[in-house]
Amino acid sequence: MADLDSFRTGTRAWLEANCPAEMREPIRSEADLCWGGRNWTFQSDAQRQWLEAMAERGWTIPDWPKDYGGGGLSPEEAGVLKSEMQRIGARPPLTSFGISMLGPALLKFGTEEQKRHYLPQIARGEIRWCQGYSEPGAGSDLAGLQTKAEADFDEALGEYWLVNGQKVWTSYADKADWIFCLVRTSTESKQGGISFLLFDMQTPGVSTKPILLISGSSPFCETFFDDVKVPKGQIVGEVNKGWDVAKYLLGHEREMISGMGLGGGGSLGAAMKPKDPMLRAEIAAFDVDALAFAAMSERFAAMWKAGEAHPASPSMMKYAGTELNKRRNELVMAAGGSDALDWDSERSKSGKAPRDWLRSKGNSIEGGTSEIQLNIVAKHILGLPGA
Ligand SMILES: Cc1cc2nc3c(=O)[nH]c(=O)nc-3n(C[C@H](O)[C@H](O)[C@H](O)COP(=O)(O)OP(=O)(O)OC[C@H]3O[C@@H](n4cnc5c(N)ncnc54)[C@H](O)[C@@H]3O)c2cc1C
Fold this sequence. Notes:
8 strands, 4-stranded antiparallel β-sheet, 4-stranded mixed β-sheet, 11 helices, single chain, binds flavin-adenine dinucleotide, alpha+beta
């Protein structure tokens, strides 16, 4: 306890000295997040300083081992760091699919060489990743994917995989440096013919086409692979056993997405007081559910980190958190009335409310739809027969 108290004191002093004032302001939009990567343009000196200072300590990912660029903190210490950051309103120094998705999969399935190569670059924000899972004919039925990787050889590369096919809904593919990608290496078995490959998005034969969304932004792409040559060693886990890696990563992705349910932490009732008593009652009921979700989420996070959570529990959390976030956004729009539809005036902070509302619709689709999460909970947690 005394050790933890002195860790808190030291952490508080360090954050006071190193977290720039600008990085303590609330995140106004997606543009305030720092994604890092080789093409990243920092929004300000403060954003760069904050990332560098945190990465130097391994605190962009406090609980990874120090050897792999993390902070080597115990779960208790990581909890203290999180609460001290929340106390001063510090923004996350880095938002990264490498941290929330690929990293945990590499820690479990990667070779020592892969861990030492990729993880420190992820922790320092030097490499931005995208996720090549969904295809035009494979979303909920992900194991139906058809992008093909065939073993081949040439003098320059030695043994390599020749990749051909198409992905869709690849978030930030046009901005990413590398992709973690599911490919079919055998047609003999559906799940048992999938492998998990990593490759550079600048490899010849990779191209992307952004898809414009209703919210006005274009965060995801169609991604095409035409005779892309991927060195043989860039596979994670064993050939034809990529489904295990894919499912493990999805658990971490769902855990990350479930955090949407926390919605920044504040009470909706305290932030808005509409005249309509029915709406006020709905907001009060929402606040009660949000508090219950926050408590459940804390318990789940501790169990998940300790490896004690049911493997299907991220599905339960993802379902609850994303449905809650959609409800929050509906209530914000209802309470704001027609003013809430203001799309681009200074007063509306450039349409934050309607943009967030439209974006929230995707929460219960990305990372697997709500229906699929309910199927998983029914089968694996409640023990009901499969459909
Ligand atoms: C914001 C956002 C970001 C995304 N980013 C990425 C990304 O970076 N990389 C990536 O690979 N993918 C990404 N996706 C794609 C996402 O994973 C898929 O959209 C999702 O898995 C659903 O697949 P689908 O769109 O093909 O829908 P479908 O699978 O065609 O589903 C259509 C409808 O049928 C329902 N349905 C299907 N099967 C069943 C069933 N067995 N039981 C009950 N209902 C069923 C679904 O719930 C859904 O309502 C993203 C999606 C969104 C919205």
